[in-house]
């Protein structure tokens, strides 16, 4: 089985060529050379994304601090990039992940190999469809207990649960108090996320 990614390097830039004529597997994904571009395997297709925007990073840092402070002694919080192995055709890199003490067995040398308790994705115009549809379906089918979609452009937050499926258990626009089923002590104002 050949390598489907060709990296051409010169002093000015790096070009990545992806062979999308084949369906990718976890084995193919693991054979990739390390690159500074984030990449994921979604339904057998290798997806490479640009680096996150400064706004995305600010929101991610705020959420990490909130989750980390709230989850002390309850589990562990990870931020991207970390590989989440869902099946042979899907390896995602969620923005933020919380894994409870009970589920720490899913943390392995290569990443996360079982459903986290909580996943947060911060969407941008380029990944909105994927986060709202493909990721949500895959995460919930995989057994993720709680999935958050944070949309900086619209200043919204949606929370889905394994139990509720496609219907959000919480939807906030611009303001309101964020609460979690997985982390009952967690509570903060949505407006905090979107202030510079």
Task: Provide an overview of this structure.
This protein is α+β, with helices and mostly antiparallel strands. It has two domains: 5-48, no CATH class; 54-194, tt1808, chain A, CATH 3.90.1570. Helix content is 21%, strand content 34%. It has four helices and 16 strands. The protein has helices spanning 26-30, 54-70, 128-142, 190-194, and strands at 5-9, 14-18, 39-42, 45-48, 75-79, 84-87, 90-92, 96-100, 107-108, 111-112, 118-122, 146-151, 156-161, 170-173, 177-179, 187-189. The strands form six sheets. Strands 5-8-11-12-13-14 form a six-stranded mixed sheet, sandwiched between helices. It has a two-stranded antiparallel ribbon with strand order 1-2. Strand 15 (177-179) and strand 16 form a beta hairpin.
Give me the number of helical elements: 4
- Give a short account of the largest sheet: 6 strands, mixed
CATH class of the largest domain: Alpha Beta
CATH topology of the largest domain: tt1808, chain A
Class from secondary-structure proportions: alpha+beta
Note the gap between the termini.
48 Å
The gyration radius over C-alpha positions equals: 17 Å
The total number of structural domains is: 2
Low-confidence stretches: 1-17
Order of helices and strands: EEHEEHEEEEEEEHEEEEEH
Number of strands: 16
The overall pLDDT, averaged over residues, is 83
Percent helix among the residues? Answer: 10-25%
Can you name the CATH architecture of the largest domain? Alpha-Beta Complex
Strand order of the largest sheet: 5-8-11-12-13-14
What portion of residues belong to β-strands?
A: 25-35%
CATH H-level superfamily title of the largest domain:
tt1808, chain A
Outline: globular
């Amino acid at each position: 089985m050949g390598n489907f990614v060709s990296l051409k390097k010169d002093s000015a830039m790096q070009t990545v060529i992806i062979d999308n004529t084949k369906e990718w597997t976890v084995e193919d994904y693991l054979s990739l050379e390390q690159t500074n571009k984030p990449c994921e395997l979604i339904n057998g297709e290798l997806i490479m994304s640009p680096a996150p925007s400064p706004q995305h990073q600010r929101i991610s840092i705020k959420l990490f601090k909130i989750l980390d402070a709230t989850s002390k002694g309850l589990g562990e919080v990870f931020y991207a990039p970390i590989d989440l192995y869902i099946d042979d055709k899907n390896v995602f890199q969620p923005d933020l992940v919380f894994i409870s003490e009970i589920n720490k067995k899913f943390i392995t040398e290569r990443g996360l190999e079982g459903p986290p308790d909580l996943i947060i994705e911060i969407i941008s115009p380029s990944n909105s469809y994927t986060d709202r549809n493909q990721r949500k379906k895959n995460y919930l089918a995989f057994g993720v207990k709680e999935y958050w979609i944070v949309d900086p452009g619209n200043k919204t937050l949606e929370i889905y649960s394994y139990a509720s499926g496609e219907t959000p258990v919480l939807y906030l626009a611009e303001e309101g108090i964020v609460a979690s089923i997985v982390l009952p002590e967690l509570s903060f104002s949505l407006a905090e996320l979107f202030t510079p």
